[in-house]
Amino acid sequence: MTKIIVANQKAYLNKNDVETFLREFIGGDVIFCPSFPFLSMFDFYKLAAQDLAIGNDASATGEVTATQLRSLACDYVIVGHSERRKMQNETNQLVNKKLKTALEAELTPILCVGETKEEYGLGITEAVVNMQLKSCLEGSSNNVIIAYEPVWAIGTGLTPTNEEISKTVKFIKSLYPEFKVLYGGSVKASNIDELNKIEEIDGYLIGKASSSAQELNTIVKSCQ
Ligand code: PGA
Fold it and tell me: What is the pTM of this model?
């Protein structure tokens, strides 16, 4: 069993931490998604960016464009992460524009979708995920990876049951059989063996645990 592993290190590490991480990480087939300033420090791994600008306007202060990411040999980019939806008010329409920008530059978007705690409580996960996917993928092509990430599971230590994850991932695959589907939300060394029992999952989007070399070493060993 080999799973896709995407290490979304968010803003957890500074430069010294990255150097330590790279010394302690044993290695493996991981798509690293460090903060922008550290992308080139991971350039012997596959690279993903955590975000990108809409369009390719070179006069946009503070933005990072698809063209710049391609120049760093970055092949993937996360779009629609719930933290950006919440903190930067990113809507499905805006995520759709980023997704199209990525595809035009031949970057593979890793599109995040998932329900909030309240939506989970109401039992409307599939409806929410369906709506997000429909809007974010509108007018796009095939080369997309979907990350199912329940918002309430991100950074909380909580995860849905294997049955719940399996049901939602199967639902997504019934709608979009051509896409790989990752699970994300509190994936860590201590629950990876249990999650690996879910056959439908093609891989994981890992946040906090991916900023610890020890945690990631265990996860890689369990998945590859
Ligand atoms: P987490 O984050 O693993 O820290 O819960 C996952 C994510 O935000 O992609």
Answer: 0.97
